[in-house]
Amino acid sequence: MYYFSGIRILKRINERKKIKCFKYFSTMPKTSEVTVNFSNGRHLTLSTGQYARLADGCAVGTIGNTSVIVTVVSKTKPSSSNFLPLVVDYRQKSAAAGRIPTNFFRRELGPTEREILTSRVIDRSLRPLFLENYNYDTQIICSMLAVDGVHNPDVIAINAASTALSLSDIPWNGPVGAVRVGLINNEITINPTRKELNQSSLNLIISATKRNLIVMLEGNADGILLPDLQKAIKTGTKEAQHVITQIENLQKQIGKPKRFLETLPVLSEEISEALRSLSEMRVKEVLQNYSLDKIARDVALGEVKNNVLEKIRSSFPDVDINLINEGYTKAVKQIFRDLIFDKDIRCDGRHLEELRNISCQVDLYKPLHGSAVFTRGQTQVLCTVTLDSHESAMRLDPLSVVTSGVKEKNFFLHYEFPPFATKETGRIGPIGRREMGHGALAEKALFPTIPNDFPFTIRLTSEVLESNGSSSMASVCGGSLALMDAGVPVNSPAAGVAIGLVTRYDDSNTNIEDYKLLTDLLGIEDYMGDMDFKVAGTSKGFTAVQADVKIPGLPLRIVMEALQKASDAKRKILQIMQECIAKPRMEKKDNWPVVEKLEVEPHKRSKLLGVGGINLKKLFAETGVQVSQLEDTTFQIFAPNACAMDEAKEIIHKYLTTERVPELEFGEIYKATIVEVRDIGVMVTLYPGMPPALLHNSQLDTRKVGHPSVLGLDVGQELQVKYFGRDPVSGLMRLSRKVLTAAKT
């Protein structure tokens, strides 16, 4: 009986275990994924459902063995701001590359420059597709899960972020697809590897949405021709459609229903019409007064605004002032855009394709290695060039080396935008994301013009003194002038220009009905317009492009036309720059650094280096000259100027020609030469190059000697001395002539 009851108990226990097991496996996360097949046979995998299920949206993108996870979270209540409060954070993880951070804490600290620039690229790819009235705090976090050092994670992060937003309940006009385009041997390559990028003359990221509409462009090139760049953009946009199709398929399968947005209060038709009627004539009068500059125009528009808002508040006291401000801004923006369409004349009196007045000057201050000031309208940039040794090269952190393949940079550009450039007050300190992005773009534009074998490290600084649009492209122009003034043998000068856009949509508000392209963008045109397309290059081709779009995508025809207008404007700017300085300076400045190579025989290397490199350290402390070893017998001498080089070469010659210090033996007799006669004795040397040692009066003779002259001793005379080692306390040589005299007697 007990036997059968025991069997029943065991069966019940097993049944309970099966039920628990079934419940556990039923709650296991289910992963859904899609694979994007590109034309060159490479694959992008996008998956979701396995990680971060509490976030509004999460996706993992993978190419090769590089994977990036992206999460998106948005608050359910709108914020008080009247703009999209979107924050994108891209973070590199050392563990993803099998590394440990090299800082003191051995953990990831603040964002690096590469992380900030990648965050900006992701942000600019997503922001244009959010709804106009969407003002919910939204954060997108992109983290590396694994990196193989072959495939770049930035494009993967854009596609994963697009997937996460599409699968979430956040209203969004996506998805977006992104690809990297390379050009190797005149053949286009989609998503090239890091090794292939080293051979590519183009590195372009394209973000596009449905119907081949371009949302973002970011890239650099080695003087690529206009037809090749246009072909690359068309091909990349077409390949991005594969990504969009697969994201939409995944969204149909498991995408969340989009949330319902709270209805925000809007101005009534009566107030909107009152705003327009009160402001239209006066705003048009200001915008058509072509004699006004930036400050005067802003002051005049500000007076109109204050007067109009005061009248509206008195007539409608119960309406929220923020709504009135927003309505007034929209009205002025529409008036500004309508004037461009109706008159084909801009607010400063220029035609659509006309450049502002340009002036430039080089060799501003003699102590500088190279300097230039470039002024275009009310945008003015001061650029300076500093040349230093290879020891001053910028060394990247280990993880950036893995992802980019660049260990150090011998050319870098630092961009500064102080608040006085726009007649404002503000904080002076570490640069922000915007300044870092502008500097990186100008650096990309100028880097292809620098020769690979240039023997110096180049630091180019660009300080914006006045700003009324296109300060980053002015940095390209001024930087190129400063490089030529510093004697850097650039293969061709470079220039940059920004192209703007204003559009009109049809009644459905989905298709562009009409548009106007604006060459050499003003600050107010950037604010009121729909695009800021920065293009830089040489007379032969393009070196950098960056498109910031504010509308949900640009048709290819507009992008192609904008590139053509930028090419024409670039050519005109280069002609003006050539009148200032046509080619790199050939005559050397007195303060230019000097570099020479030195061949040292193997058996003399120890003489040059000294014990523990003491000779080179002493040389640097005395003359500021750095000596670095290139090969076994080849050294490079860097001097800050020609005078320091001459002084260093004399010292190095002494190092190499000085005989080796002989080893003195205790009790041996040596021939000494008197180099100085003192009251207490004579200073003698036992071998060439030896520091003089004192032979005291008490050791000169067996008799008592009051002064060496009583023995007839004088400078240059030779005498024999006996060596008794060094004093254990002072370390001075102990020499004696007395013992030899006593032995003779």
Automatic annotation (TrEMBL):
Keyword Lipid biosynthesis, does the record have it?
Answer: no
Q: Name one GO molecular function term.
A: RNA binding
All copies of domain S1 motif, residue ranges:
667-738
Q: Per its UniProt entry, which superkingdom is the organism in?
A: Eukaryota
Q: What keywords are annotated for this sequence in UniProt?
A: Nucleotidyltransferase, RNA-binding, Transferase
Q: What is its EC number?
A: 2.7.7.8
Q: Does the keyword Membrane apply?
A: no
Q: Which NCBIfam families match?
A: polynuc_phos, PRK11824.1
Question: Which family, according to UniProt?
Answer: Belongs to the polyribonucleotide nucleotidyltransferase family.
What PANTHER family does its record include? Answer: POLYRIBONUCLEOTIDE NUCLEOTIDYLTRANSFERASE (PTHR11252), POLYRIBONUCLEOTIDE NUCLEOTIDYLTRANSFERASE 1, MITOCHONDRIAL (PTHR11252:SF0)
Please state what the protein is called. Answer: polyribonucleotide nucleotidyltransferase
